[in-house]
Amino acid sequence: MDLTLSPDEQRFEGEVRAFIADNLPDDIREKVRLDRHLGRDDFMRWQQILGQQGWFTGAWPKAFGGHEWSPMQTVIFNRVAGEMHCPELQVFGPAMVGPVLYTFGTPEQQSQHLPAIRDSSIWWCQGYSEPGAGSDLAALQTQAENAGDHYRVNGQKIWTSFAHHADWMFCLVRTSREGRKQEGISFLLIDMKTPGVEVQPIRMMDGRHYLNAVFFNNVKVPRANLIGEEGRGWTYAKFLLENERVENANLRFITQELQKLRKVASEVRSKGRPLIEDPAFAAAVSAVEIQFKTLEIGLLRTLSDMHAGATVGAGKSSFIKIRGTEIAQRITELLVQASGADAQRYQPGPLFDQSDAALIGPEYALGPVATYLFCRAMTIYGGSTEVQKNIMAKHTLGL
To answer: Which pLDDT tens digit goes with each residue over 24-75?
Structure first.
């Protein structure tokens, strides 16, 4: 595959660089550059700036307010965003429930929700995993009882990313126990302000709060919030998961962390010279860069298939997910190694910007361990690596 940018793509790259340079708030840029904690306002401010440009949903069809970015434009945007220290985009709206809505939703659902996703005025979260239904998602038990003009929802979701920030949740629920377990699942949209919804935080080992348990106690959800047909939620979920696993390629994050790795390795001294000149360490960095380039080619092929309307297939999206998460983890390991003993100090005040405590040690050493610890979850969330390999064996290799 030819990765040389065409003149139009070069112009687009220049436009993206100029826009980010002029519009990314300095305080957000510095937080990302220095691995500081980002709050809801930080994410929303940047996403709303992108929304005004139409770039928060740049890959959407023009009929639904997007720009129909080509696969290469999508890659360019994410690559430049990583290089220029942009925050990770919260993709639950634009890359997950948004395509479900404009593909399977009613005109009323589309008019209600798509504009708020485009301008990032609403934050979405994903209600899939449960305590007994993680890798085996079809085993979910959250019940949605048909009560005429509404459903009454009872149950629990777990590991729900940013549910404490979310205004709405797209949620898989069980509406029937007849037939195969996949056949009794439906896809509901739930307003997080509805009485009976309770969000309980799950703290990470470094003190950050990303994950939550969400409880539903007789939550009344209008039938108008059902996507598509009752009992076909598994079909819509598989459609969404293909997009999620492509997002898990982590293109922006990897680009940013690779850039950070090279900078740190050029500043740290080893045996009187920059660490990046150490043959063994340089070889490790080069190896992960090569892996990243092959991932980028695979991602472009997958995005091209999706852009052409072809079915990507579970095997391809699983490959992207596995390689993207493993490469991201490897880079964070190398960053911890490069930062050395300085990175072992836990300094929550500077990390969370919660005190005026002076930073001990170099700036670059504050965030690597926290990022490394969080990234251990990458090969679990969105479908564990073990499960993804089984999917590839079945759907790609026919085993």
So the answer is: 999 999 999 988 889 999 999 999 999 999 999 999 999 999 999 988 898 8
Q: Per this entry, what is the length of the chain?
A: 399
Output the domain CATH number for residue 264. 1.20.140.10
Phi, psi (degrees; rounded to nearest 5) at 118: -60, -45
Amino acid in position 300: L
Kind and range of the H or E element at 370? helix 368-375
Please tell me what DSSP assigns to residue 130.
B
Evaluate if residue 313 carries a pLDDT over 70: no
Q: Who's near 69: CB < 8 A, 6+ residues apart?
A: 58, 59, 77
- Quick one: 86 exposed, middle or buried, by C-beta within 10 A (0-12, 13-18, 19+)? buried
Residues 379, 264 within the same domain: yes
Examine the domain organization and report whether 175 and 129 are in the same domain: yes
Encoded amino acid at 367, one letter: G
Tell me which amino acid residue 342 is.
D
- Identify the DSSP state of 366: S
Take residue 145 and report the two structure tokens written for it: 């009882």
Q: Which residue has the tokens 């430049």?
A: 80
Which range of residues forms the domain containing residue 299?
Answer: 248-395
Distances (CA, A) of 347 to 204, 332, 358, 362: 15, 18, 9, 12
Q: Dihedrals φ, ψ of 9, to 5°?
A: -70, -35
How far is C-alpha 62 from the chain's CA centre?
Answer: 23
Q: What value does the CA radius of gyration of the chain take, rounded to a whole number of Å? A: 22
- For residue range 78-131, what is the model confidence (pLDDT) as tens digits? 999 999 999 999 999 999 999 999 999 999 999 999 999 999 999 999 999 999
